[in-house]
Amino acid sequence: MSSKRVPFYQKRHKHFDQSYRNIETRYLLQEYSAKKAASRQAVSYQTSSGLGKTTCRLCARRFHGSSEDESQLQEHQKRSHEQTSQVSEQRRMRFTTELSSLEEEIRSARLHAREQLDKVSIQRMVEEKMALERYAVEETISRAPEILVRLRTHTVWEKMAVKLFFTVQGFPTPVVQWYKNEELITPASEPGKYRIESKYGVHVLEINRASYEDTATYTAVATNVHGQASTNAAVIVRRYRGDEEPYPAGVLPFHLPLPDVCFTHFDVQFLERFAVTFGMEGETLALRCGLLVTPELTRLRPRAEWYRDDVLIKETKWTKPYFGEGQATLSFTHLNKDDEGLYTLRIVTRGGVNEYSAFLFVRDADAPVTGAPGAPMDVKCHDANRDYVIVTWKPPNTTHEPPVIGYFVDRCEVGTENWVQCNDAPVKICVYPVTGLFEGRSYVFRVRAVNQSGISRPSRISEAVAALDPVDLERLQTIHLDGGKQIVIYQDDLEGEVKIPGPPTNVHASETSKTYVVLSWDPPVPRGKEPLSYFIEKSVVGSGSWQRVNDQVAVRSPRYAVFDLAQGKSYVFRVLSANKYGISDPSEITPPIQAQDSIVVPSAPGRIVATRNTKTSVIVQWDKPKHEEDLFGYYIDCSVVGSNHWEPCNHKPIKYTRFAVHGLETGEKYIFRVKAANAVGMSENSQESEPITVQAALTCPSYPYGITLLNCDGQSMTIGWKLPRYSGGSNILGYYIDKREVHHHNWHEVNSSLIKERIYTVEDLTENAYYEFKIAAANIAGIGQASDPSEHFKCEAWTMPEPGPPYDLTFCEVRNTSLVILWKAPVYIGSSPVSGYFVDYKLEEGEEWITFSEKPTSHRYLKITELQEGNTYVFQVRPVNDAGIGKASDVSEAVLVQAKPDTKEISAGVDEEGNIYLAFDCKEITDASHFTWSKFYEEIEDHEKFKVETIGDHSKLYFLKPDKDDLGTYSVAVSDTDGVSSSYIMDEEELERLMTLSHEIRNPTIPLKAELAYEILERGQVRFWLQAESLSAEASYRFVINDTEVADSDTHRIKCDHSTGVIEMVMDRFTIENEGTYTVQIQDGKAKNQSSLVLIGDAFKAMLAEAEFQRKEYLRKQGPHFLEYLYWDVSEECEVLLLCKVANTKKETAFKWYKDGAGIELEELPDLQKELLCMTIPRLSKKEQGEYKATLADDRGQDVSTLDVSGKIYDDMILGLSRVSGKSASELKIHCTPEGIRLQCFLKYYTEEMKVSWYHKESKISSSEKMRIGGSEEVAWMQICEPTEKDKGKYTFELFDGKDAHKRTIDLSGQAYDDAYAEFQRLKAAAFAEKNRGKVIGGLPDVVTIMEGKTLNLTCTVFGSPDPEVVWFKNEKLLELNDHYVVTLEQGKYASLIIKGVSSEDSGKYSINVKNKYGGEMVDVTVSVYKHGEELPDVKPAASGKTRLIPADPVQESAASKPAKSGRK
């Protein structure tokens, strides 16, 4: 089609019914007929009627000449009758001259008119061409607003100016509006406060002299016809003078004068606004909006304008706007999908424009046939001519219906109700050339869509269009004359005499498709005055033959749709013009034309993103498709996650790539997809968006409250606070804290980054100074309002022994006479841990606190009962520790003890699937609310036992594995509500009832004795089986593996034993490809059941490994093999036995033992005929740890068995030894030593690695200096060093073997203790004497050989306490000292005997006697002297030994024992 705009002649044409044919016949002939006679009559009539009144130069001259003739005749008649003939002759000559002049003037006028008409025609052609080019250029650069530079947040001081900048691009140029906290900013409302600028895409909002009230979120919204974009930022205005607090809203200081009222603008308030509306085709509907315009001036009333998608709506038979009596209404008499769109009400006043918008959705009416598509829409007519018009429309959206395969176009003549189908076969694209129209008649059109299910309802009828040739009116030319007269002529009058017309020009294809080609051409010039008709001829390229297309019917319009063209072939065309005189020459041949679509189906839109908007809507955005030729727009579909059922979101294509989907269910999770549409059809669906839950868009949270001082060390304070009452629709990300000293005015930031918890320690404070704090919460939407300043807190260190205050008191389950209070433990606990809490309460106006319970509660929650309904109470909590009662918490907010109307309680039940649940409903839920389920008021986090499912305002707590551990008190609380909560006590009786009911519901099917299981057979085969309690002979079954049914075959042997109910399948070879889900489905009559087994991941790997192991085991057992691999046992003699069983051996089979890779040689070779082989470890110890291996080998193969004796196996061996030793343990015996009393237990075998415990009077004894625990290979002992009276009592020896404890006891008291103690004293004294007696420590040899003449020096070290007496002997006689024998004792410990010049007489036995009061000893040394030259003699020591003990004197011994005796005392 050449143009999409409505031609001027269609705008001016009036569409009549059939009665016009008789009444207005003459009018039509004069206005539209092209006949020559009619045009000449019109010209002559206009010329003759204005001859005496024309104001043109030619007519004026002729009129002036006639007046002169009449005056001259009168004068000549008076003067002389004789001159009559002369005058007549002069008049004739003058008339002849004037007539020739008149003919010349007419010719000049015609030439001048033709020039003017040519100029007008050329100017009109230039303007239309420029408009078309301008439209094409604008279409190429059109795009939705895109923000390049976004707004950023500012923090400024009061009375400063702040500017907000952002940059946006788009075409047409976007209109920008500024909002403060979602309220439109108008500079006229506060003159001088705001200044808005816009230059080159950069938009500026300047706020002059910012005040505290200017702290807000500012939003800039850029809008054009293609879409909308927005950006926002926060402006925070801080005060630097604390005495300037903001005035409450609506209150002004009394001393400020009020300004005079001066209405500089109209204030328009929308009182009642029409919401997003949903309608259905065929319904009647009205959009209403209540208004209040201030001031109300009768002479300056506002104007109401309605727009649909920014197109002004005028009153038609479909829409009726009304404005008056404070209400603007737009009524729809018959809704169609054409009416869907964004409706905007604009109130235009002298002060500006106020507008409000909302979307109207119109869904399809019920189809006449189930599955039929919806009706097409937006039917329009283009390029109307005498017998031809192009009809276009937009396709309907199809989601669950079959796709549209074509369309039927119907026409109806105006004034009748006779609809005629224009096309026999459905047209596949959304454009169709309708031919066969009658010239001069008006038509309306409608379209019906077709799919495989049927035909849709018809679309809304189009606007009426007349079958007229626009060239006819263009050929009419009007010449305007002075005096309001005009000359109307046809262009034919200027062409001269033309009989046979010329050939048409500019023949071309204006539109192509797969089924037809529309040819267009220009009429011939000159065309002649006779009516024209056209003949079209076609020729296949290369054939050389021409075929006339329209033999039967002549074409009168310069356009024609050629059908029945072969696909894939190229054609050329030519056109001939004809009138009653003949046919013209053919026109120039067109270039080759092929019947094919000029545009293609668009590609699928790009990435789709869904974001939150309101609690019932979602914003969906997507990228344009790569191929977007001549798009009508986009359709959006939505589906609830998991339902796989798609519903249309819009029913009329939208042009922009951002759409607000309304009518969604709050809390439900949706996915979205988009498809593009053009005249050829629909694109593929885009990729599905990420699932999104329908929730309101985020806002800033409210302020925290309840700021409490929890601890102070003199330099820092720990404060806590309560959650904001409203979270803003998202989780609180953290908090910002400001502080200031009480005598200061300025607030200072405490933290620059968010604080996650609701408790914080503020550092770097001044001791004994008073501080106050305020806190603001932040979420993803921004920072909320700061709290009120806290109380004045003194920075003074807390040193009291009592605990600090609890904090964060919250309430739930408020009923008529009770409530539940919860709190958090104190931060400062004092000198000892908190042991409990007292809860106090009183009436809000009361003075006396009442303690609920006399005993403190150890929990951090308490249910307060016996309250008075309708009263308001406050509460406090006091902690208790060993030092006493600590500081009470801050007094809570007042709580009204009264159940709210329609208070819901938790209900217990079992669903259709047999799941036990607790359910709770909350109608007060908001977008940001969530249900918190708790057990004993601690939030449930065990997802293996519990499952929480919340849908909208309904939440359920499912018990996944109900058992007796689930008994207790369950509660639920709903956040962002006014304390909605409830609790439920699950006792044993109720749980048993629910579990019984669950079992009955879950088992209405074929009962199974055994679920589907598997077992690995001997050769690695896998057998899947299950067993039903009973199966009839008609029972059917089937195995399904990974959603594919498996039939009985050689690889899958399936059978069923109906008598036992066993169904099994045996797989010969189990491989990695068999991973997946195995299901057996059973049906016996109406009863059904199935059992599945999931074998994936680690479970499948373990099964595959087991099957492979069994297969290898089968192959292994074909040769010598271990029937039982290495294992261990403990004999009764406490020996560790390594055992194994062998099988399938023969004489040639070799068997060997190894430890850590080294072979072990046994005294006896193993006898393989006994099958049971053994290796003994006599005494197990850590050195026996290692890897033991046994091997079998012969010509048939080999087998290996290993046992790692370490770690747990070694520990188990120790426990096994403990079991045998424990049974053999003797009774405890007393054995005294010099160190103390030793209790002994004799065992077959003992090692320190055994789990041995000693007890004294039921208290476990740990090894220490006082109590020493030890043992040897066959005895375990415990020694009491230096026993006292406290050590009397019962002693127990316990040996634990992993299962049993072997105990032995003894009573060490009375005579037994006395005897043992006496023996201990005796041994202690003896040991003391032994320790302190005189003795030779070392230095003397047994034998000394020396040559004569030399000096012998015998030196040794002696010891004794007190110092011993040293005496030397020779041959048992006291040695006489002289110069030859010299004896010395240095430092009391170095004793020497020096023999000078030894001779043979000096040979003999020398002895040193060392003795003190505790005794001593005598040490012998044999000295042998040989002469020079003799051989060295071989001397042996004395047979009696080197050292002999010397007892102490009896008197000294008794004296030495006395200190020990007194020491006991």
Q: Catalogue the unreliable spans.
A: 1-14, 16-67, 241-264, 1454-1465
Compute the number of helices. 12
3D shape: elongated
Query: What is the average of the pLDDT values?
Result: 83
Strand tally is: 100
List keywords for this structure.
five-stranded mixed beta sheet; 100 strands; 12 helices; mainly beta; 1465 residues
Set out the fold topology:
Elements: H1 8-12, H2 20-23, H3 25-32, H4 36-49, H5 57-79, H6 84-141, E1 143-149, E2 154-157, E3 162-171, E4 175-180, E5 183-184, E6 194-199, E7 202-207, E8 216-224, E9 227-238, E10 267-272, E11 277-280, E12 285-294, E13 303-308, E14 311-312, E15 319-324, E16 327-332, E17 341-349, E18 352-363, E19 377-382, E20 388-394, E21 406-413, E22 419-421, E23 431-435, E24 442-451, E25 454-455, E26 465-466, H7 470-475, E27 476-480, E28 486-490, E29 505-512, E30 516-522, E31 533-540, E32 547-548, E33 559-563, E34 570-579, E35 582-583, E36 593-594, E37 608-614, E38 617-622, E39 631-640, E40 646-648, E41 658-661, E42 669-678, E43 692-693, E44 705-712, E45 717-722, E46 734-741, E47 748-749, E48 759-762, E49 770-779, E50 782-783, E51 793-794, E52 807-812, E53 819-824, E54 836-843, E55 850-851, E56 861-864, E57 872-881, E58 884-885, E59 895-896, E60 907-910, E61 916-921, E62 931-935, E63 938-939, E64 946-951, E65 954-959, E66 968-974, E67 981-986, H8 988-1002, E68 1008-1016, E69 1022-1028, E70 1036-1041, E71 1044-1046, E72 1052-1057, ...
Parallel strand pairs: 2-9, 11-18, 92-99
Antiparallel strand pairs: 1-3, 3-7, 4-5, 4-8, 6-7, 8-9, 10-12, 12-16, 13-14, 13-17, 15-16, 17-18, 19-20, 20-23, 21-22, 21-24, 24-25, 24-26, 27-28, 29-30, 30-33, 31-32, 31-34, 34-35, 34-36, 37-38, 38-41, 39-40, 39-42, 42-43, 44-45, 45-48, 46-47, 46-49, 49-50, 49-51, 52-53, 53-56, 54-55, 54-57, ...
